[in-house]
Amino acid sequence: MRKTLLGDLRDSELFHGIRRDEARRILASLDAQLKNYRKGQTILSAGSRVRRIALVMEGSVTLFQTDFWNRQIIIDRRRSGQIFAEAFACDRHALSSFTVQADEATVILWFDIMDILKVDAADESRTALIRNIMNTLAMKNLALNEKLLHVSRRSTKEKLLSFLSDEARKAGSSEFDIPFSRQELADYIGVDRSAMSAELSRLAREGYFETNRSHFILKKM
To answer: How would you list the strands of the sheet with 60-66, edge to edge?
Structure first.
């Protein structure tokens, strides 16, 4: 396994707070698999059985669902240091409800969840690993609740304002960049892109915010 990747482990969700030598020891016992994916390659398909947790070491991935009419709905993005598929890996009978695709050249480190859960109470590092997984699950549950709050709004205007207000809260500032392109934002909040773009222009003219691509500055009305 590449030393540069091992050096990045402490910055990840999974190994946060665990010493580098302890991370190496745990990796050796987990039979972790390092895999490379090219841009646009499918990493995980909806409907497949998941046995391992995925840690993004380099690059980024998009999680999305495809409906009966082949329309894509973005669930989330995962970047370097973040994990995905942990909820499905915890349930050996669950099938993935989304597809994961590489946004760019991406390196993924896969862990078997059952190996992680075979924990010795005296092994503080492995206990910390499980705690990090639980913390990540809790944070993602909150993120899904936030998305539900946005998409449950009745109009495109209210969905946009709800989303932008929440992004400002996360940034701790009225000026911020959103993690989506226009098409991705439309997919995320579940609206038509053309209608959303028209609504963004109208809201900007009315003084709700200034925007340039993914950059926003919210204004008090």
So the answer is: 42-44, 99-102, 60-66, 72-79
Reading phi first (left if > 0) and then psi (alpha if -120 to 50, else beta), residue 212 is in beta
**Which residues touch 122 (CB under 8 Å, ≥6 apart)?**
none
pTM of the model: 0.62
Contact call for residues 75 and 65 (beta carbons, < 8 A): yes
Report yes or no: 127 and 121 within 8 Å, Cβ to Cβ: yes
Residue 53 burial by Cβ neighbours in a 10 Å radius (0-12, 13-18, 19+): buried
Pairing of strands 215-218, 175-177: antiparallel
Q: Which residues are CB-neighbours of 102 under 8 A, at least 6 positions away?
A: 37, 38, 39, 40, 41, 43, 59, 60, 61
**Half-sphere exposure of residue 115, counting CA atoms within 13 Å on the CB side?**
14
13-44 burial, b at 16+ Cβ within 10 Å, e below that, comes to: bbbbebeeebbeebbeebebeeeebeeeeebb
Structure tokens at 109: 């480190």
Q: How far apart are CA 169 and CA 152, in angstroms?
A: 19
Amino acid at 218: L
Task: Tell me which of 74 and 163 has the higher pLDDT.
Answer: 163
Model confidence over 66-116: pLDDT tens digits? Answer: 865 676 778 888 988 888 888 777 766 778 888 999 999 999 989 877 776
Q: For residue 132, which amino acid is it?
A: N
